[in-house]
Write a structure and sequence with these properties.
Radius of gyration: 20 Å
Low-confidence stretches: none
Number of helices: 3
Structural class: mainly alpha
Strand content: under 5%
Distance between the termini: 49 Å
Shape: extended
Length: about 100
């Protein structure tokens, strides 16, 4: 593994993640429709995984990086909060300006 280039490692990692996603979709494609409780539990689990991924992979490194630039204290956390709020505002603005449809059943 150490002899592989970063591009190759990135490609292999993406390929493995894509194959695992496809493998996870197989029961849905060929099985019966899951009950509402099962779907709600699965969505809650996925939301928790994404929340923890954003916390451990994005927020903590952002605070550490800001800490290297601004020192210890509340300023690094404030920089991370400003970044999070700016990202939220960008997504909200895109939601309002880009054309999209809501599919209601």
């Amino acid at each position: 593994m150490e002899s592989l280039t970063p591009i190759t490692l990135g490609f292999l990692g993406s390929l493995i993640a894509g194959l695992m996603t496809a493998l996870g979709a197989v029961p849905i494609l060929f099985g019966e429709v899951p009950r509402r409780g099962t779907r709600d539990m699965s969505l809650g689990f996925a939301a928790g995984v994404m929340l923890s991924a954003s916390f451990f992979s994005l927020i903590i490194p952002a605070i550490e990086s800001a800490g290297e630039m601004y020192g210890e204290g509340a300023i690094p956390a404030g920089v991370a909060v400003i970044g999070i709020l700016a990202g939220m505002a960008l997504v909200a603005g895109l939601k309002e300006t880009l054309p999209h449809q809501h599919f209601n059943t």
